[in-house]
Amino acid sequence: MTQFKSDRAGDLGMTAAWAVSARDVAAHFATDSAAGLTTGEATRRLALYGPNELDTVAAKPAWRLFLDQFANTMIIVLLVALVMTAVVGDIKDALVIGAVVILNAIVGFVQEHRAERAMAALRRMTSPQARVRRDGATVLLPASDVVAGDILDLDAGDLVVADGRLLEAPNLRVNEASLTGESVPVDKVVEVIGESDGALVADRRNMVFRGTAVTYGRGLLVVTATGMRTALGGVAALLQAHTSPPTPLQRQLDNLGAKIAYGAVAICVLVFAVGIARGEPLTLMFLTAVSLAVAAIPESMPAIVTVSMALGAHRLVARHAIIRKLSAVETLGCVTVVASDKTGTLTEGRMAVERVWTADGWLVASGAGYEPSGEIHAEGSAAEAAPSASLRLLLEAGALCNDAALLPPRAEEASWGVAGDPTEGALLALAARGGVEPAAAHAANPRFAEIAFDAGRKRMATFHRTPSGQVLVAVKGALEAVVDDVTRLAEGDGDRPITNADRHRARAAADAAAADGYRVIAVAGRHADGEVTSLEAAERDLVLYGFVAMADPPRVESAAAVAAARAAGITPIMITGDHPATAQAIATRLGIMRDGGRLMTGSELAAEGPEHLARHVGDVAVYARTSPEQKLDIVAAWQARGAVVAMTGDGVNDAPALRRADIGVAMGASGTEVSREAADMVLADDNFATILGAVREGRRIYDNIRRSVRFGLTGGSAEIWLIFLAPFLGLPLPLLPIQLLWVNLVTHGLPGVALATEPAEPDVMQRRPRPSNEGILSGGMWQHILADGMVLGAICLAMGLWGYSTGRPWQTMVFTSLALLQLGNALALRSDRRSVFSLGWRGNPFLLAVLVGTFVLQLILVYWAPAQSVLSTEPLSAGDLAIVLAASTSLFWIVEAKKLGRRFRERGASDKREHTGTALHTIDGDVT
Fold this sequence. Notes:
Blueprint: H1 22-28, H2 39-49, H3 62-68, H4 73-87, H5 91-113, H6 118-124, E1 129-134, E2 137-142, E3 151-155, E4 163-168, E5 173-175, H7 177-180, E6 186-187, E7 207-208, E8 213-216, E9 218-225, H8 231-241, H9 248-277, H10 282-296, H11 301-317, E10 321-323, H12 327-331, E11 337-340, H13 342-346, E12 352-358, E13 361-366, E14 375-378, H14 389-400, E15 405-407, E16 417-419, H15 422-433, H16 438-444, E17 447-451, E18 459-465, E19 471-477, H17 479-482, E20 486-491, E21 494-497, H18 500-515, E22 519-528, H19 535-538, E23 542-551, H20 558-567, E24 571-575, H21 580-590, E25 598-601, H22 602-616, E26 620-624, H23 628-640, E27 645-649, H24 655-660, E28 663-667, H25 673-678, E29 681-683, H26 688-725, H27 737-747, H28 749-755, H29 781-805, H30 810-828, H31 845-863, H32 865-871, H33 878-887, H34 890-916, E30 922-923, E31 926-927
Parallel strand pairs: 11-24, 11-27, 20-23, 24-26, 25-26, 27-28, 28-29
Antiparallel strand pairs: 1-2, 1-3, 3-9, 4-7, 4-9, 5-6, 5-8, 10-29, 12-13, 12-23, 13-14, 15-16, 17-18, 18-19, 19-22, 20-21, 22-23, 30-31
């Protein structure tokens, strides 16, 4: 026996395993196909190369996760404010700021703690045990003990625990969808495959791979790779190497926080220097500078953003979208590209016969999945066709030459399933839809022999006893393997000799179906008298009944969802491991592939390289037969163009790209746990259309966060003007730090959160996605903030000057005016364009409750003695309160007037467009 000479278990050291004979592979690994390894040799290899397990990345400890929540510019600014307030001895303010920071960190910690389990899911995918030949006997061993060179037995239903080269593969079919995206089980062979022909995992038909499942037949293999050296291990390595990028909103808020921090420091230094130059006491000016810092920093902003996204995540649950990472909620709103897997995402993830060809013409089959109910009718007719004798023979033969079984739903909402090969399950469902009950057909025609399917024959034959004592032969397989051996053709209610013209017509019809992405299965058979002395002889002189065209059908909602995505300015593309013809057919039916769109295969991507992809990625609508690495390259190429990419997927092969994308979207029902754990969002209903509902929600949330930020920064701007200008006007410090904190956390915070629950604008899905590099204050928002802040500050200053000069409780009047002006501003900011009087309260009753509640709280601070001692307020007379209330409505009317002016301008622009035919676009509420 050849000595095992590889330096690493799983590395052949000479050439690819699929490109050499199985005997050479076994010899290279110094193993015997009958006896397997000896226990001693297997133990030595296990000790040398390690167990058959996937490597794991050490999870962050809880303390590190918690500390990471403070690595945020805005939080750092708050911590600086906390230190400053503590230094001046204002312990109450420091405690309040500290509570805000800790609360925000706890919310983030809880979310992060649930997001790092992808590798644990990968480990759980492998079978815990495997049938291994050791010392000449077959033993059951833990999968982790399997080593390179082991001989493994496979049967239908087994999970493959390691990569291996097949030694035997009678009728072996393996479901590789989770690894390659192939929608149908792969027929395995033992013959050598050319090295270049096996460049992709999906093309290595003489090998099996860890994490896949045997659906039919049996196999014998020599293990060539274990653990991280397997194809699944390669996916695991990719998953470890890629982390999710920061979301656009995270980047924008960090940038905004930095600008606020620099601005606050600059203003504080300026005020402090001016005061000292004027001869003001050092302690007073330091307290004033600290107060100004507290005014400049929007303490409630982190909480508003976090709560807004949490509320959005809660709303998305009702849309069957489960958010695993809060940051993903906002990212949905600026998605520009949806890169979707095909199998199980755009399609149903199951095989179904859609068309049937007989000599009488094409028939169309309808029905959902494997459900036995449905209809078969003539093409071009909606009426159900009365089954002809030839059609009934086709349905009966397809049901009899079949080893699968239909599985009824286990729960009220579950769908029909199949035990066995999906292709055979589709034939059973078709038979039931045509009036042939599969179980009854088997009972009436018991099988007594069969010739199993193999790659050489490309067909399967079964032999049955009929109630009349005849022998019924049923055959199904590839059309080219059947059509040349038939002698007759079923037609109408009888049959006749088949001609070459008939064979040409059948081939042409089958080629047309294959070009449309269908898998074609021919069905033939015959009834024979007498005893069967030779199965091969009985299989001759067959009658061709016809063929079926089956596919993994698109979901009903997918085409409409693709159209809606395009209307929203989102580019849909398909990335699949499936066959190019199948991928192109589905993409064309759904509207993903349109005139001018290109299809690229994994082989083309590998040959042309990433530079070619970077240049042409915008032209390619469909990628077929792609590897996990290539999916990563496609996502990265789009991101390099500035696109915000949502990647959908359900298989292990999708997990790295899900992690790399701006937002990974996994399937909840049919997807693997690996894909779900790597994703940011999970679709509970596996429906592509749900993504569009989530995008709508994401856009609504971003609009509302912008409203909340505008609302909060307007108040902060007013506070800066108020604190900065008061000394120049001869006023003492107009607001104490604790009063500023109350305004920032309550008067800003509660209405800010309530604004985050505002319904979406009517045109939210007719806009193009916002650019990912667009600032959160874009579209003229910062000008509105400064202008409205000036107005608000001027009103408060005027109130203070008047109250101070007349001996009234001026500081309480300023404090109350500032708080109530903010409430009016929140009411006006419910919409960027529409008047608040046209909105009604049904859309946002929470805001009404918050405004009323905050108003009542403010009055309590003014008139309740215990609150007065905490906030240093004084009671106002009825006249003073009336003046404050009247002044507090002014900003509301100013904002409403600006919206009225905008509506007049937009109406004029619309009239001009109708007159000139010029197209106008609205982006985030501003006309361009």
